[in-house]
């Protein structure tokens, strides 16, 4: 079995503000050495980005999917990121955590709708007041912490 130790965050660049918000909730865990987070902000000039993403996908123990209309419309995400993440969930027990950012076709996407989302597709992050979406992101960070500390 593959050694899966990282948190992989998949998102559309159009939803970068939500990535930054999630990173705030994961930062204390990273600082304490409790998790290693990977998203494409780790890619710097000169790196072979496809190779970096493929390697990160192979190390993912937890996959957080920031699901939106832009996420589902991204051919790269649906073709290159989701299949290995869904396979890791099926074969290696990786945890897939959809977070519904905006109204989208999540509930009608067969490969995704079987995964329990952190929030209801009927109440997306964009539709919530700040205190509500902060609680959702806090819950995601606690789920990740529990998953990584109690394998």
Written overview of the protein:
This protein is an alpha/beta fold and 151 residues long. The protein has a single domain (6-149), classed as 3-Layer(aba) Sandwich (Rossmann fold), CATH 3.40.50.10140. 49% of the residues lie in helices and 15% in strands. It has helices at residues 16-31, 49-59, 69-73, 75-92, 110-113, 130-149, and strands spanning 6-10, 36-38, 60-67, 95-100. Strands 2-1-3-4 form a 4-stranded parallel beta sheet, with helices on both faces. The longest helix has 20 residues, at 130-149.
Walk me through the topology.
Elements: E1 6-10, H1 16-31, E2 36-38, H2 49-59, E3 60-67, H3 69-73, H4 75-92, E4 95-100, H5 110-113, H6 130-149
Parallel strand pairs: 1-2, 1-3, 3-4
What brief labels describe this structure?
15% strand; globular; alpha/beta; 6 helices; single chain; 151 residues; four-stranded parallel sheet; Rossmann fold
Q: Let me know the largest β-sheet.
A: 4 strands, parallel
Note the beta-strand portion: 5-15%
Query: Which outline best applies?
Result: globular
Mean pLDDT: 91
CATH topology tier name: Rossmann fold
Listing every helix as H and every strand as E from the N terminus to the C terminus, the arrangement reads EHEHEHHEHH
CATH superfamily: Toll/interleukin-1 receptor homology (TIR) domain
Structural class: alpha/beta
* CATH domain class name: Alpha Beta
Number of domains: 1
If helices are DSSP runs of H or I spanning 4 or more residues, what is the number of helices? 6
CATH architecture: 3-Layer(aba) Sandwich
């Amino acid at each position: 079995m593959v050694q899966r130790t990282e948190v992989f965050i998949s998102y559309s660049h159009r939803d970068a503000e939500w990535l930054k918000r999630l990173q705030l909730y994961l930062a204390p865990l990273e600082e304490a050495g409790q998790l290693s987070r990977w998203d494409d902000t780790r890619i710097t000039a000169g790196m072979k980005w496809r190779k970096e993403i493929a390697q990160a996908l192979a190390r993912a123990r937890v996959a957080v999917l920031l699901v939106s209309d832009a996420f589902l419309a991204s051919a790269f995400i649906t073709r290159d990121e989701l299949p290995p993440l869904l396979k890791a969930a099926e074969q290696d027990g990786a945890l897939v955590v959809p977070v519904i950012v905006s109204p989208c076709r999540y509930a009608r996407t067969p490969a995704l709708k079987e995964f329990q989302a952190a929030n209801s597709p009927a109440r997306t992050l964009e539709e919530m007041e700040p205190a509500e979406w902060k609680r959702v992101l806090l819950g995601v960070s606690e789920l990740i912490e529990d998953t990584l500390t109690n394998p």
